[in-house]
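Quick start: read one record
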Amino acid sequence: MNVKNNKTLRNVIIFSLVALSCGWIGRLVDLQARTDENGSLGQLIWIVSPLLMMVILRSWMGDGWKDFGIKPRVKGNVFLYIFSLLFFPFMTMVIVGISSSLGWTDMSPMSSHYLTAVVLALVPSLIKNIFEEFAWRGYLAPKLYSLGYHRVVVHIAVGLIWGVWHFPYLFLFVETTESMITYIPRMMLGVIVMAVLYGEILLMTRSVWPAVFMHMAGNAFIDTLILKKFVLVQAEFSYLAMPSPEGILAIVLTALAGLWMYKRRKRASLRQSPPGFPKQPQFPV
């Protein structure tokens, strides 16, 4: 491994340690302040710290900005942008349709207000996911790709770190009576298959923005549906019918989409990559 790769690996380790610790520091701050409400100081530390670490590493610790993927690169990628915006809303409708027809879920009488609630959630979700995706797909994924690891290994590594990052605040947003022995592994699997899907789109577009919009749409449609109780999933079927990452139907549909994108990218003709990203032949297939 050359000096540049040693430096990149060192910085990736630093970033990962900060990402995995900042949420617990935030929880400690919240416990000291005796608050667990949305928008707490601890949650701000949790959300902002990975992005701040990315800025430090790129600006002052030698990582640079060439592989940040800040340019939208919409030209030639319109389909991928549309897919990114619509996949999670479509997946949610499919899961709710299947589970409702099988009697696994009950619709709230307030469901007619669901779209209004989604629209109101879009802007906060966009802002939150600029912070999140600029860190995960804007830093961690491209840096691991640049080290020459197989892209599936990178997807899994990003998914594992991203999933564990959620742990400190996970149960403020999740209501479940299920044992963590079964819940956590399934949730982690769901996050990993999302990392595959996000990562493949990142590699095809060479831009972080599809991931931002995909995450925005997913949070706005899925979190609003669950947290605002527009749909009530029967406890005995929650492991199947939840449209969130831990639901088996969601895992299967996301995995199929990720596999499709993986194969689609392999079939795509090789093309010159923009500055900052390795040319496709340098990525193992």
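The longest helix spans residues 114-146.
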